[in-house]
Write a structure and sequence with these properties.
Blueprint lengths: L4 H4 L6 H37 L9
Length: about 60
């Protein structure tokens, strides 16, 4: 069971297409990283606000 020749054949990409795909992939990675960082910071800030002054009233 092998794929037909039309499907298996990989056409070489031009340099412009390869560069555009790399640029798109890089931008998507940066966007995901920024979104994850904002989510994490928001989560910790909400946790701190929710706990309020209880964070500072710990017994040593």
């Amino acid at each position: 069971m092998s794929a037909p020749d039309e499907i298996r054949e990989v056409k070489p990409e031009s340099r412009e297409i390869a560069a555009a795909r790399a640029k798109t992939r890089r931008r998507r990675s940066i966007a995901l990283g920024v979104a994850l960082a904002l989510f994490t910071i928001t989560f910790y800030l909400l946790t701190i606000v929710k706990m309020g002054p209880a964070i500072f009233d710990r017994a040593l």
